[in-house]
Design a protein that fits this description.
The chain is mainly α. It has a domain of 158 residues: Cell wall hydrolase SleB, domain 1 (Arc Repressor Mutant, subunit A, Orthogonal Bundle). It has 7 helices and 3 strands, in the order αααααααβββ. The relative contact order is 0.09.
């Protein structure tokens, strides 16, 4: 092989060697640059996460802890069920609210409150509605308001709500009271603290003394009704 040919081959190899070194240099530069950027970005995200968790922690320790530390009497006062605060939650206040858009569940709830407690105070009406909601939330009863209301309605004088199986035709004649109870039912259907009856799922009139009441735990007396829950 001539000297000139060897020189040419060597020059070509040096050229491609430079190209290869350049490619490798750029590759490692980009790799380590991106690796450093990723670590920096991850560090920033971790910092943000810590800040977020701190914010959440502060929220839990302030608002939620404060609410959970209040007893039922204080919560009752805040809700409007207090002797000095009746203006915030009263029949007069309900009358000022617009009539809600009704649903089948709301109608069933309003119907039950109307026939069971329309002559009661607002606390008494709310308490009866609360029992119905408590039943819906319990696994011991149907999981809908209409289902709870109509349970056993085909048995004369042996249903859960007496107006449904007393053999009488029930008619809503007092439209103003019913309209007000519809608004109350709308409030009951919203997520809220239900504490008037202490989790009761049963109640009866004070004018009777059913045998089943001895098997349950008495939770409260409101208006003309006594309230109980399962032991």
């Amino acid at each position: 092989m001539s000297y000139s040919l060897c020189f040419l081959i060597n020059k070509i190899m040096n050229y491609y060697r430079k190209i290869l070194i350049s490619i490798l240099f750029n590759f490692f530069f980009i790799f380590f640059y991106n690796l450093g950027y990723a670590e920096e970005l991850n560090s920033k995200l971790e910092t943000k996460e810590v800040d977020y968790l701190k914010l959440l922690k502060d929220f839990v320790e302030s608002d939620l802890f404060l609410i959970s530390s209040l007893d039922q009497n204080i919560l009752k006062n805040l809700s409007g069920f207090a002797s000095y605060d009746r203006g915030k939650f009263s029949f007069v206040a309900l009358d000022k609210l617009p009539q809600p858009k009704t649903s089948s569940e709301m109608k069933c709830l309003a119907e039950a409150i109307y026939f069971e407690a329309r002559g009661e105070s607002i606390e008494g009406q709310y308490a009866v509605g609360e029992v119905i909601i408590n039943r819906v939330l319990s696994t011991e009863f149907p999981n809908s308001i209409c289902g709870v209301i109509s349970e056993g309605a085909n048995r004369l004088n042996a249903c859960q709500f007496s107006y449904n199986c007393d053999g009488k035709l029930e008619t809503i004649n007092e439209k103003k009271i019913y309209g007000r109870i519809l608004k109350l039912s709308k409030i009951l259907l919203e997520p809220s603290a239900r504490f008037l009856t202490g989790g009761a799922t049963f109640y009866h009139s004070k004018f009777v003394s059913p045998s089943w009441s001895k098997k349950f735990l008495k939770t409260n007396e409101i208006g003309n009704h006594v309230f109980y829950k399962l032991p």
